[in-house]
Amino acid sequence: MDGSDFKPKDSFENVISLTNHEPLIGFAEMWYNIFLWALFSSIFVHVLAGLIAFCRLRKHKIGRWISVLILAMGVLSPLTGGVITSAAIAGFYRGSDFQMKPFYAFCWGISQTVIVVVVSFSRILSTL
């Protein structure tokens, strides 16, 4: 399998299960797995943050709409920066002829979200 027979439907099922022990070899296959985990984890974190913001600011005239912006960033962030960083990671693995296990793609995707959360909190604290 050289990555040319990449099927997103099959890969999507493999991404969710994490029980596939076959290594990811092609660039597109690696990129797709990393990207989906970054997208899923980012949406999860931003939905939680949006719910907290809405609950805390529900009586504020303008503040209740902040939760909508938080949810939008949960989708836009992985669709812009997540695509690029996932491609960089997959390109490194492909260029080095490493075989990526699906669990490693999971770890790379989750770590992208963790880094975004850490950077976001560090920017907020520096403005106080």
From TrEMBL:
Domain of life where this protein originates: Eukaryota
Transmembrane segments: 34-54, 66-91, 103-125
Topology in membrane: Multi-pass membrane protein
One Pfam match: Tmemb_170
Keyword annotations: Membrane, Transmembrane, Transmembrane helix
Chain segments annotated as coiled-coil in the UniProt record: none
Family membership: Belongs to the TMEM170 family.
Protein name, entry field: Transmembrane protein 170A
Organism: Tegillarca granosa (Malaysian cockle)
Organism placement in taxonomy: Eukaryota, Metazoa, Spiralia, Lophotrochozoa, Mollusca
